[in-house]
Amino acid sequence: xxxxxxxxxxxxxxxxxxxxxxxxxxxxxxxxxxxxxxxxxxxxxxxxxxxxxxxxxxxxxxxxxxxxxxxxxxxxxxxxxxxxxxxxxxxxxxxxxxxxxxxxxxxxxxxxxxxxxxxxxxxxxxxxxxxxxxxxxxxxxxxxxxxxxxxxxxxxxxxxxxxxxxxxxxxxxxxxxxxxxxxxxxxxxxxxxxxxxxxxxxxxxxxxxxxxxxxxxxxxxxxxxxxxxxxxxxxxxxxxxxxxxxxxxxxxxxxxxxxxxxxxxxxxxxxxxxxxxxxxxxxxxxxxxxxxxxxxxxxxxxxxxxxxxxxxxxxxxxxxxxxxxxxxxxxxxxxxxxxxxxxxxxxxxxxxxxxxxxxxxxxxxxxxxxxxxxxxxxxxxxxxxxxxxxxxxxxxxxxxxxxxxxxxxxxxxxxxxxxxxxxxxxxxxxxxxxxxxxxxxxxxxxxxxxxxxxxxxxxxxx
Length: 462
Hints:
By secondary structure, this protein is α/β, with parallel strands linked by helices.
């Protein structure tokens, strides 16, 4: 793809950035001697930095967001047209794009019924927790208020979202945390907690029941899980896991919350990750790919049964859901989401995700056969990971610095942007992460694989 024609001298902009911007997830001491990377233009899977260098983005905006790729003029036009007509009104009122997208969304989610708008994945999960807590007070005298979360899963960056986060290094230094959030074991069979067992999926799910019984079933109101664990190492749930999870939730009257912030809108090859496994959730949260980063939007979606809990006893003055998200009333989000969904449908991107995901997984397996450093490859759709180890027999994870060196080499030598677990799991920040836009072609994937192949050779000679 040709270099953009409007690449100029961005020296003054870079200096302004260094002087005033507080970047996410960054130690700024390094910016005393090096410039921060600035991405100033994008088209398809390609982005250009301030120096005009082209990169292939294999992580959809760095954080699994730009599902339909960069430079989508029709989305920008839809947002512009809507903002000129009506940009914002508080969420106590309705809007045309809000109602339209909600209907489109529910059509893709059989069994679900209601959409609550906010503006980030963290906030969407906070709403879900508030649903559980308010229902606990209204129906159970406040007792059934505990919410279970899984080791390695991540549900957001606010204090309460971190309280439900299964990544210790993301939680460090931010306590004390909101009480009532209880961990359950992870489901990564490659690192089985019970040794070599034939029914790992069922065993890992049954561990959830053990926690419920330990805490007291009358105190547990909710369970939040990612359909495929994202930043915790791209963990695909093992066979039998989800069937057993649903059985447990039904048995103990526990609301099942599925966090689709990463997996939603086609990332795994179905509209939502939970649909890969026949799950019937009570609450689903989503953000990132809902509008592919063209506008801020998140949704907390519920069944009609959950919604009706806030309609019963209407005479009670505090019975309704007393919550507001200011920018949940901005019309840019649903306007962008409508066009984003149209693109996903009209360009058959779910089918492409399945096809290209299978191809990429095959190519990662080829790399595993070539490089002893790769202990395991896994994924679903265009959401994949390669776990790096120093020894395949012992499965000793490589130091985080090695995984980051591979990421840096891909960027430097081949201008390919990949990801890796980082500063999340003490001793286990060793998984390379891949999530290219759902428009990815075989040639794009070949370019990614070539970069990783060369990086593994150059970094460790293996």
